[in-house]
Amino acid sequence: MERFLLDTHIWIWLILANRDKLKRSALEEAQELHDKRRLCISAISVWEVAHLAAAGRVTLSAPLDAWLDITFSDPDVDLLPLSPNILVESTRLPGTIHKDPSDRMIVATARHHNLTLLTRDDDILNYARQGHLKVRKF
Predict the structure, then answer these.
(1) Could you give the strand order of the β-sheet that contains 116-119, starting from the edge strand earlier in sequence?
(2) What is the CATH number of domain 4-137?
């Protein structure tokens, strides 16, 4: 059964049901994947959300701690830790990928767990075209 890793921006848009960024069909598909326990989030995405909220670049539907509690009280979404193997892999990714450490850790997490990454990040989509990562533009 194929499982999927949410890129941080996709995770935020899904939680906020952002219809400006995601089509209704994408929201429905995400709900279906959620119901089948096929969605994962990298621990680095938690840091990214906290960083974005602290900088005022994202407005959450609740204070950050409450937002995270609600999100991770859901047993149908797996939070994947940053293991030593993933951290090292993020520094050894094959091919050409940009240097953003968060994106590199998300890519390494997807590769390590053999997940398909749901993203709209052009740099990651270009990296996937090199054949080093399974992605779906979401």
Answers:
(1) 77-80, 39-42, 4-6, 116-119, 135-137
(2) 3.40.50.1010
